[in-house]
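Reviewers of the previous submission asked for a worked example of the structure-prediction workflow described in the proposal, so we include one complete record here. The input consisted solely of the amino acid sequence. No template or homolog information was supplied to the procedure at any stage.
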Amino acid sequence: MRECEQVRPSRRGRKLAAASLLLALGITPLCAQTSVKLSLNGQLGGAVAPFLVAADKGYYHDEGLYMTIDPGAGPFDTVNRLAAGGDIIFGDINALIRLHDQNPAAPIKAVFVLYNRPAYAVIGRKSRGVAGPKDLEDRKLGAPATDPAFAEWPLFAHLNAVDAAKVTVLNVAVPVREPMLASGEVDAITGSTFVSYVNLKERGVPSDDIDVMLMADYGLELYGGAILVNAKFASDNPEAVRGFLRGFLKGLRDTIKNPTAAIDSVLKRSEGARKEIELERLRIALRDNILTPEVKAQGFGGVEPARFERAIDQIALVHKFKTRPRTEDVFDASFLPPLADRKVMK
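From that input alone, the workflow returned the following C-alpha cells.
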C-alpha cells in the first residue's frame, strides 16, 4: 500500500507535472503516525531514484510515515529551506559546513551521506584545448553561481596549481551551461558528472571530446550529497528520522539490485524524461559516488571521522572560517541503522 506518499509539484514550472502525481488517490495522513516533508535537490532525475523507489514500494509507509516529496529548487535553496523549518532534505553537505560557519546555531545536521564521493566536476572539451586542470588557464569557464561544483572551484584550482586569475569565469544560468560548452562559447564548465556529461552527449558532443575532471579524482577529499534533517524535527520525531533512513536504505538496495526497474519511479514523475538517459545518470552516480571502495568496506551512510576532518581542513585552504566546524557539528550518526544493516551486499 502507498496511500501515505504524495509528491508535490516543483515550483519551477508545471512541466514537471508528473512529479506531482499522487501515488494514489484518496490520500489521508490518518493512515500514518508522522507527516514528513522531503525536499530533493532540484534534479528529479535518475540519481534520486532510491528516494522514489522507497516511496513506490511502501517502505516509508511501513515505517509509519506519511510522505510529501518536493523536487526542490536546487541544493542551496533546499538547505536554506530546511534551516527555515523543513523536515528532511537531500542536500549538499559542504553547503551545510559553510552554513554552520556563518551560523553555528543553524538547526541542521547531516544524518546519512549518500554520495561518499561528490559528483562535482570540471568538464571541458578536448577540441577546445582542455584535457587537464592546467589547460583551463587562459580559457573560459562557464559556471552557475548556485552550482555546488562551482563552490569548490577555488579548492580544485588550489589543489591542482591552476592560476585562477588566468581563468575567465562566466556566470551562466544552469539551463544554458551545457549548450554554451557544446557551441564553443565556453571551453569548460562546472557541474556534476551525471548531469553535465550526459547532457553534453545528448547535445551531440562526442564522448571522446569530453574531458570529465571529477574533483574527487583531483585531490578533493570532500563528501557530497547527504540526507539532512532539521534539528527540531529530529528532536521531536527521532523514530521518524530512523524510520525514514531504514525505508530509504531499502529503496537504495533495490535500486542497486535493479537500476533499470528503479528508473520507472523517476519516469512516472518527470514529463519528457527518457529511460536510457536517466538510467545512465543513475549508473554513473552508483559507480562514481555511491558504491565507492570506502562504502564497500565501511557500509552506507556514515563518514570516516579522520577523512571528514581533512575535508574541513581542505575547505579552510580557500575559505576563511569564522569558527571552524567540527565533524560532530555537521554529522550526527545516532540515527543511522545498525552497521550490519548498512553493509554492502556482496
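Confidence is low (pLDDT under 50) at residues 9-30. We consider this example representative of the routine output the project will generate in years two and three.
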